Amino acid sequence: MAAISPSRRLRRTPFSEGVEAMGAKAYTVYNHMLLATVFRSVEEDYRHLKSAVQVWDVACERQVELRGPDAGKLMKMLTPRDLRGMLPGQCYYMPIVDQTGGMLNDPVAVKLAEDRYWISIADSDLLFWVKGIAHALHMEVLVDEPDVSPLAIQGPKAEELMARVFGDSVRNIRFFRFGWFDFQGRSLVVARSGYSKQGGFEIYVEGSDIGMPLWNALFEAGKDLDVHAGCPNLIERIEGGLLSYGNDMTRANTPHECGLGRFCDTQTAIGCVGRDSLLRVAQDGPVRQIRAIAIEGAPVPGCGAPWPIMAGQDQVGQVTSAAWSPDYETNVAIGMVRMTHWEPYTEVDVLLPEGEVRAATVFGVFWN
Amino acid sequence: MAAISPSRRLRRTPFSEGVEAMGAKAYTVYNHMLLATVFRSVEEDYRHLKSAVQVWDVACERQVELRGPDAGKLMKMLTPRDLRGMLPGQCYYMPIVDQTGGMLNDPVAVKLAEDRYWISIADSDLLFWVKGIAHALHMEVLVDEPDVSPLAIQGPKAEELMARVFGDSVRNIRFFRFGWFDFQGRSLVVARSGYSKQGGFEIYVEGSDIGMPLWNALFEAGKDLDVHAGCPNLIERIEGGLLSYGNDMTRANTPHECGLGRFCDTQTAIGCVGRDSLLRVAQDGPVRQIRAIAIEGAPVPGCGAPWPIMAGQDQVGQVTSAAWSPDYETNVAIGMVRMTHWEPYTEVDVLLPEGEVRAATVFGVFWN
């Protein structure tokens, strides 16, 4: 792996000091911000995530804040998901598309109040899209990136660790709900959510100055729980079918291709951007869709560019994320497969770099 | 330096194969794309850039294409620069600001025709801003990212190399003008421009498939010119005062703070986003501004986060880019300095990481 050159443009986070002290070995860049990818090894991190508890610096999940009388109206324009039933205290995963139905981001929206939302974004400058629309339509809403940096606590012992720092009432937070919890006199949003299937929480740390005090408090409280620094784990997220914007989907894809059709209420979400295009897509269905794919043979390298999925001489899709799974003893992968070959157990070939051809099988469900 | 993890989200370019073969040692991520930062060493690359000719993969300068009857109207909304005199064949550097006058990008616009522009962007998803506005206002314009990847030829021998590949008429291209030139039957935009002060060209390579053929042709033709793979050079760009969006300026800054007031024709650019805010700024002038700063002592480390500029106990600015300059035998730096301390030859202190204090001097002009 090549080195990464430091610059202010690759922003540090309120927790970077802790991440470095814990020995992060590699990084990616996400929303112009550093995101660790490996601490001990991807496999060791994976084992630990499934058995203990990890603290993840996911400050790169930047927030787009909408605040003001038109915040709710603007939110409804932004997503084909029906937000009418959304109450303060809830988190909604919501696809955001352009006028052609192409995915711009797949964030989690956090409803703080009737006139105030955070959109916790994947890797694209969604702020620019939201600001552009709000400005052009003269909407009465402030749109900005606040000083809020999520810290995720993930793994089977996450609840125990959180209870020690925030009190037992965190145990009552339901999935994709949040509450306000006190830390050193500051009231923070704590949600039961996170980018793993091991369960856990995301703390929306408001105010960079309390980043390291909170980081340290968590490590102090969790010593006997074997708490460790971690990060979204490539193997675990593929096993769980957790998609990554920019990897498994881009602006070229509709939500339906990404298996996100259930978040598109095109009949009721009237007035959202891209609705006309999505009505068409919803009616006809997509011609390609995200699938779990098992690739045979030795551990594959990192997927730095899409790998063609072949049926004989014809390309019928592409793999966009892949890793060796120690638990399932196969290479687990996420790919987009054409309708002709997306039925479970369809056998295909995957073209790895340097011309290597591997047998692979399309599955209907992910591993976790 | 930590390693960078490969993923499709950090996009490869049509020239990545060549960049890797030439031994790129480190990368940054720019517009979700890989950009090499070092080949031999930053200093060796710098020497070579100033004496020979380099081929730079700057595909990460993605294009936002505007095409259609409203393209010109939308362009005028996007920038405070007066575009009325811009003709097809011209390139314009143009600040783009939000409604508060905060910088969103500082691209170079390329006017292909009255109804067709490319905006060659710095590191932010300007596409989202432009698409958002165009959609909200129902403008008749297509806004998209085309398959166009700039390749820069920079250095004193750039013209000679270009003439060998594209013919002698490239010599007639004036600064910030472009022409259409043939390569293997494909007509490409070739501009006299680039992110160095050594002179050179940018080829807007349309069609990823001809990326490597062009790359190879340039290296083949330039053997006796000591052509080498290169990249924007940190030392050279600081010496020349070439700003970097995300490093030396962010959304927090106005064009006037960045010394770009001369590109803001707020009296004539009526209807552009942010005009009201910029009128105010133009009248009052900025209270802080970009300056050249020389930092004494041994070579400084990479500037991964702003370094405070101090006058006694008061912070009066920050350094955002810095490097040791072999030619000027000092650390050259770019920073934002408050009005109280921006006069040439003002002496200040710079706080480096780990509490190190360095004497420094503010200058009125850059080195190159």
UniProtKB/TrEMBL annotation, chains A, B:
Q: What is its EC number?
A: 2.1.2.10
Q: Which Pfam families match?
A: GCV_T, GCV_T_C
The record, for InterPro entries, names:
GcvT/YgfZ/DmdA, GcvT/YgfZ_C, GcvT_C, GCVT_N, TrmE/GcvT-like
Output the Gene Ontology terms for molecular function: aminomethyltransferase activity; methyltransferase activity
Q: Name one GO biological process term.
A: methylation
Residue span, Aminomethyltransferase C-terminal domain = 288-363
Quick one: which residues bind substrate?
A: 202
Q: Which domain of life is it from?
A: Bacteria
Boundaries of every GCVT N-terminal domain copy: 19-267
Keywords, A to Z, come to:
Methyltransferase, Transferase
Q: What class of enzyme is it?
A: transferase
- List the PANTHER family hit by this protein, alphabetically: AMINOMETHYLTRANSFERASE, AMINOMETHYLTRANSFERASE, MITOCHONDRIAL
What name goes with this protein? DMSP demethylase (DmdA)
